[in-house]
Design a protein that fits this description.
The structure is a homodimer.
Chain A lengths: L2 E4 L3 E7 L2 E8 L1 H9 L5 E7 L5 H8 L4 E7 L6 E5 L8 E6 L19 E4 L4 H10 L5 E4 L3 H6 L1 H8 L4 E5 H8 L4 H8 L6 E5 L5 E5 L11 E3 L13 H14 L6 H18 L6 H4 L3 H14 L4
Parallel strand pairs in A: 1-4, 1-8, 2-6, 4-5, 8-9, 9-10, 10-11
Antiparallel strand pairs in A: 2-3, 6-7, 11-12, 12-13
Chain lengths: ~300, ~300
């Protein structure tokens, strides 16, 4: 079934120990869309500027992404520059030019009205809430956020969280959101804020999903998907968004939504994140096959599988 | 089969957000011995001072640990003081008093000569090498080290590593030892230094075992054991040593040594580490049952098990 993602499309300038690239196609919604496209039909709502060409759009269209929701505004596309020269786990931002993204007001094409799955990528929580209210018929909503909104717009974010079924954030963000240093206690607290499940992304160590009691089935314990150690991380940009695309895309491709589906989705999220970092930008995500994805899924599974 | 551990016995003064304790029984060899005692017969070689009483020794003897290798020297036992007030993942050392440990020369009782498994806890690599040479008939040697020896005595450590079958260190140490920031490449390099297997401890994220090609069986990939998020980490002291005790103790309890045994051992290591941190010092390790251990093993297994 189809999934709608609302978020940023950007041009990134990135420096890592493996090299430097300028103004390549990026943005959370781009990574998410490409990763999810291997599992299900993807619809995209975003804003771009006059510098976004048909060639850029073709990257998405070639993967079947429905781009009718991409609004073209006067001016330049959102641009971000960052480097990972000292630490591959955390970007140092060099510059952020919001450009057309500053006044982004998501507009959902009427053709998207029947979408069953929704992902609210990392944008202002007020916009997330508006989109979620408009898409009131969806079966499942996933969402992302970041420290900037957790600290800057906590009340707006609290409203969004009430409408999100599965929140996907990292260790630092869950602890900040809950104001609690212990991951398990922080996760329990976040699960009282709205979401029925919380996916905590641990970067190179994989991810853990925590369930609100009784949500998506029975069980006392969280579930953890590991990540394979990778020989060469060329560019960590978009790993978390690719994780989200694999996770949500797999769920949307399944008939039922239960804990077993969410567990396998957690593995597929890790798989897509691990591909994303192997090349700069979206290069690796553009050139995958479902067979490669499933082969790595098996490796991830064997990574922790006891006879 | 029995296992001999050579390492420190200490009195620790520890402050964490959960409280403060003074001069409680600790030291790497103590945590290791108690954790391993649930799996196999443990023999201990260490040095203590006149302040080490029969009550302290009883903690070990009550778990069947053979304490004939504990040498009593004039003076005080090794003392360490540290705090985890800001960060439960890393201790800030307040003081280190080596005392009798400064002149420690491990003496192996002749009754220990038939020991089949050896663990060289974190002591001067020259002492580790001497013990390993003396125990030349062992089936498997595990070893630990730390940044202090990696940077301070690299040549001595290189000699030790040639004699160690399984090295157990953490992420930071493996990267420092290999002078390489990428974990996978660092691990491959360490596996050229002597060990046939390398266990990298990731703290709250579990541990990964890397195998030299062809060692302990066939397979291309490493194996990762996750760790359950714990609600209250009271005192992280000794978690890594308890991990080592569970890991090595389980291996020593098995007839064969192959990859499946080492994988299960990795889970048991994580289980023992997770118990250790639930109480101050060795309290939790003193009061366990094998049933509790196996129940948590099952939880760890289910934590990443896909149907």
């Amino acid at each position: 079934m189809s999934i709608l993602v609302v978020g940023s499309v950007a041009f990134d300038t990135i420096a890592t120990p493996s090299g430097r690239v300028e103004n390549i196609l990026g943005g959370a919604a781009t990574y998410f869309s490409l990763a999810a496209s291997y599992f299900t039909e993807v619809r995209l709502v975003a804003v771009v500027g006059e510098d976004f060409t048909g060639l850029h759009e073709a990257v998405l269209k070639d993967h079947g992404v429905d781009t009718r929701g991409i609004e073209r505004a006067e001016g330049k596309t959102f641009r971000w520059g960052g480097q990972y020269l000292d630490n591959l786990n955390e970007a140092k931002t060099d510059f952020t030019e919001l450009n057309v993204f500053e006044k982004f007001q998501p507009r959902i094409p009427k053709e998207y009205a029947d979408t069953q799955f929704l992902f609210l990528a990392n944008i202002h929580p007020t916009l997330q809430t508006a989109v979620r209210r408009e898409m009131n018929g969806v079966r499942l909503t996933g969402g992302d956020t970041m420290n900037f909104w957790i600290q800057g717009t906590p009340q707006e974010l609290a409203e969004t969280l009430k409408l999100v079924n599965v929140l996907l954030i990292n260790d630092t963000e869950v602890k900040m959101l809950a104001d609690e240093k212990n991951l398990l206690r922080a996760s329990r607290k976040v699960l009282t804020m709205g979401p029925q499940a919380l996916v905590v992304k641990h970067g190179e160590y994989g991810a853990t999903i925590f369930f609100r009691e009784g949500a998506f089935g029975i069980g006392k314990h969280p579930f953890r998907a590991p990540a394979l150690p990778i020989e060469e991380v060329k560019d960590p940009t978009g790993a978390g968004d690719s994780f989200g695309g694999g996770f949500m895309g797999y769920i949307a491709s399944q008939g039922e939504i239960n804990r077993e589906v969410l567990k396998r989705a957690l593995f597929y999220g890790g798989v897509m994140g691990s591909f994303a970092v192997e090349r700069f930008g979206t290069e690796r995500l553009q050139n995958l096959t479902r067979e490669e994805i499933d082969a790595r899924f098996q490796i991830f599974r064997e990574l922790t599988h006891l006879e």
